[in-house]
Amino acid sequence: MNASPDKRQGPRLPTSAQLNRATAHTAAVLADPHATLTDRHRAAELEAATLHAFWQTHGARTKTILEQEPEAC
């Protein structure tokens, strides 16, 4: 059995839970006094990419979704 997603379905886009995890990870890296500048940039870029993909999934509803889930901010 092939474990990869069907190419006709396109890429799997993130859920709000995955966006929450990316945001929490960024906050943890920023709070870590031992994190390097590269660590901080990487975390922020990954969070931004996750948010962008989330926006592609939910479009104009994204703002409403994020307002309903304040822990995502």
Mind explaining what this structure looks like?
The protein has 3 helices and no strands. The mean pLDDT is 81. It is 62% helix and 0% strand. The protein has one domain (14-72). α1 runs antiparallel to α2 (37-58). The protein has 73 residues and is mainly alpha-helical. It has helices spanning 16-31, 37-58, 62-68. The radius of gyration is 15 Å and the shape is globular. The N and C termini lie far apart (39 Å).
Concise synopsis of the structure shown:
The protein is mostly helical.
Rounded radius of gyration (Å): 15 Å
Largest β-sheet summary:
none
Per DSSP, what share of the residues sits in E-state strands of 2 or more residues? under 5%
**SS-derived structural category:** mainly alpha
Q: What distance lies between the first and last C-alpha atoms, to the nearest angstrom?
A: 39 Å
Q: Judging from the principal axes of the Cα atoms, what is the shape? A: globular
Number of domains: 1
Question: Helix content range of the residues, please?
Answer: 55-70%
Note the main attributes of this structure.
73 residues; mainly alpha
Describe the secondary structure blueprint for this structure.
Blueprint: H1 16-31, H2 37-58, H3 62-68
Helix pairs in contact: 1-2
